[in-house]
């Protein structure tokens, strides 16, 4: 199933009547930030009976939450083996189970009756940039047997039948993962939160927070709010009210584009209709609107107009799928996410009555949903599973130097991925040529009547006739690596 994507300007046109906080207010819980995490907390807490106020400095989903591809699957940005090494097998299993709960939360919300056109469809394919068949087997076994996750291993031939490119080798298919129209989902989430009783105030930046005492005080430009609990879900945009927290996140801007309609040739080259991502985290794409390709790839640690990266998206598509030719990119969008140093989200209680839900860069929609459920239930039910995230403390991201280092690491990672992929494809071509040469030599031997026979002990093998050898030698060619 494909969905119709609504452009960001059209979405914003319906938000001109958004409500600002212009009067003093009391609430049980104040959530700062109306992105995926903040709205998930507001919805869950309101459904559990709490009075909730959400303060958003701009408008709902204005940043990364409203500009993402909408792929939902279990897991975290930190690779599973690294997670096990960091916190142990049993705790890693519990965190993985929580990430699956987050994915099911999104599925349930996306199925609500007031989310028309959400375009929920099942199946996500993760493809490898290198020939990693041996590692694939052990990973499949671990996910299936130890982490109770349904996955399928795809051999190279099956991957290339679905995706007409030599860039990808093996794949891992998640049949229960899914995708939604991410830009519609965040507004549907806000509508559900309002219907449950949460009050959402936009164009209401937070000037200061006093988190001392039983009733915390939050100051905005035109009003004050008091609450027993505060949840900081503003990601890198918390600014002055919690500068130290925002400095633990490395801001990374990720950009995506949507092509013009490509017709039937798109389906001939990309037969897999759902989300595809590579295991190096470089590319992420899927078909939308029937015959348009939505592609996410470039990222920077500095802000820029998304339109600047249309050429980069177009070149990336041509690199992976040269048969598509020079496609036209008609829409660009993007937003900033906060990346943590340790690669895990920041979820938990900073001090009594003050909570954090941030650091969801590269984490996926399941983690922000998981944080919403967990924090709301921790506040209202005393659920302490958030302590599983305690080993992942707040770590300073390095400021301006951290951004430079992050950009260099990103460039190095993409270059390493390209080099590893080129080497893997070169080796694959070399193996094919060796097999072809052996086949030609065998055929030449048969034609010359010199089929291999068992030699007597100590006898030297008879060389093939010169004519047969010459017939088996391939024409000279250039073996340089192409990318």
TrEMBL record:
What InterPro entries does this protein's entry cite? FAD-dep_OxRdtase, FAD/NAD-bd_sf
SUPFAM superfamilies documented for this protein: FAD/NAD(P)-binding domain
Q: Where is the composition biased (Basic and acidic residues)?
A: 434-443
User: Which residues does the UniProt record annotate as the domain FAD dependent oxidoreductase?
Assistant: 28-377
Q: Where is the composition biased (Low complexity)?
A: 444-474
Q: What are the UniProt keywords, alphabetically? A: Oxidoreductase
Transmembrane region(s): none
Gene3D superfamilies xrefs: D-Amino Acid Oxidase, subunit A, domain 2, FAD/NAD(P)-binding domain
Chain positions covered by the region annotation Disordered: 434-483
Give the source's domain of life in one word.
Answer: Bacteria
Q: What is this protein called?
A: FAD-binding oxidoreductase
Organism from which the protein derives: Bradyrhizobium agreste
């Amino acid at each position: 199933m494909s969905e119709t994507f609504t452009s960001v300007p059209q979405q914003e046109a319906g938000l001109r009547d958004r409500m600002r906080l212009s009067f003093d207010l009391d609430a049980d819980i104040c959530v700062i930030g109306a992105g995926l995490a903040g709205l998930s907390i507001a919805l869950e807490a309101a459904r559990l009976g709490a009075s909730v106020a959400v303060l958003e400095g701009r408008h709902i989903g204005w940043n990364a939450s409203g500009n993402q591809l909408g792929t939902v699957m279990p897991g975290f940005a930190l690779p599973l083996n690294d997670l096990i090494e960091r916190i142990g097998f049993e705790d890693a299993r519990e965190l993985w189970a929580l990430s699956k709960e987050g994915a099911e939360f999104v599925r349930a919300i996306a199925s609500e009756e007031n989310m028309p056109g959400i375009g929920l469809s099942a199946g996500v394919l993760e493809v490898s940039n290198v020939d990693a068949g041996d590692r694939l087997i052990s990973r499949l076994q671990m996910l299936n047997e130890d982490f109770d996750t349904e996955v399928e291993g795809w051999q190279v031939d099956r991957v290339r039948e679905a995706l007409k490119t030599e860039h990808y080798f093996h794949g891992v298919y998640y049949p229960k993962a899914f995708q939604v129209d991410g830009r519609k989902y965040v507004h549907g989430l806000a509508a559900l939160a309002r219907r449950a009783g949460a009050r959402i105030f936009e164009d209401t930046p937070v000037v200061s927070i006093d988190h001392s005492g039983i009733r915390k005080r939050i100051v905005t430009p035109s009003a004050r709010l008091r609450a027993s609990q505060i949840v900081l879900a503003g990601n890198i945009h918390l600014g002055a009210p919690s500068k130290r927290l925002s400095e633990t996140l490395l801001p990374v801007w990720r950009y995506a584009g949507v092509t013009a309609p490509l017709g039937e040739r798109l389906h001939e080259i990309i037969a897999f209709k759902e989300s595809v991502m590579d295991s190096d985290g470089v590319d992420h794409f899927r078909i939308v609107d029937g015959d348009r390709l939505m592609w996410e790839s470039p990222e920077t640690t500095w802000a820029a107009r998304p339109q600047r990266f249309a050429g980069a998206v177009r070149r990336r598509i041509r690199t992976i799928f040269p048969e598509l030719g020079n496609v036209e990119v008609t829409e660009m969008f993007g937003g900033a996410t906060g990346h943590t140093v340790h690669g895990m989200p920041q979820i938990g209680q900073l001090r009594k009555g003050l909570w954090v839900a941030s650091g969801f860069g590269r984490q996926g929609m399941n983690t922000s949903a998981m944080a919403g459920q967990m924090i709301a239930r921790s506040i209202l039910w005393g659920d302490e599973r958030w302590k599983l995230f305690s080993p992942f403390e707040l770590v300073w991201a390095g400021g301006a130097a951290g951004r430079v280092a992050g950009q260099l690491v990103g460039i190095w990672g993409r270059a390493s991925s390209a080099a590893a992929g080129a080497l893997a494809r070169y080796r694959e071509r070399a193996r094919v040529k060796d097999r072809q040469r052996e086949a030609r030599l065998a055929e030449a031997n048969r034609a010359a009547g010199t089929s291999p026979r068992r030699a007597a002990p100590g006898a030297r093998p008879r060389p093939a006739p010169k004519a047969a050898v010459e017939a088996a030698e391939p024409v000279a060619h250039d073996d340089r690596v192409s990318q």
